[in-house]
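Lab notebook: predicted structure, single chain.

Context: the supervisor wants predicted structures on file for every construct in the current expression panel, including those that have not yet been purified. This is the next one on the list. No modifications to the sequence; it matches the entry in the shared construct table.
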Amino acid sequence: MSAEPVRVVVADDQAAIRTGLVMILDSAPDITVVGEAADGLAAVATARERKPDVVLMDIRMPGIDGIEATRRLIAESVCEVLVLTTFDLDEYVDSALAAGAAGFLLKSVEAPALLAAVRAVAKGDGVLAPEITRRVIARLGAPARKPVRPPGLDELTPRELDVLACLGRGLSNAEISAELVISEATTKTHVSRVLTKLGLRSRVQAAIAAQDAGLVG
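Prediction complete. Output recorded below exactly as produced.
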């Protein structure tokens, strides 16, 4: 029996861009678009109604922006959010990740990479555009930055610390499973517990916390 397709809601205030994204997404046999939204409030309402796996979220939209829409959806555990925007300003990246977005891509992304990112986010993995990843790593690795133990770190078990360190290296669930010799289901459970104990909303936030804590050599 084949797996259910990844359900996606596309949120962008420009109709032409929404149409293009829907065409790309619907071209994949394992992805289906279940809704569209032209502003942040509509994105939240549509996601609540359609229960997608992923919302592909623009940032600059009327009403509430994509950052606030992301914050509301993640707070309610409605779905995962993959931000797709023209603007790669650090403040947008930081705000999106703080809101709980599982990924951040630029609209210049090629179609195959976009489809791969949607699949990854739906599986619980995090995705950052290469340009964004380099800048985040550069900021985290600045010489003046000292390790900071995030609240809740002492509550993690040794295995959960191992998982957190893997997240800090940007490993996917499959890669963590292979490295720690555990099943993907067990990996997902550990990741969920790490997020809960550290009070985080996404694995990308966990990766940053691991870097902050000095768990990544």
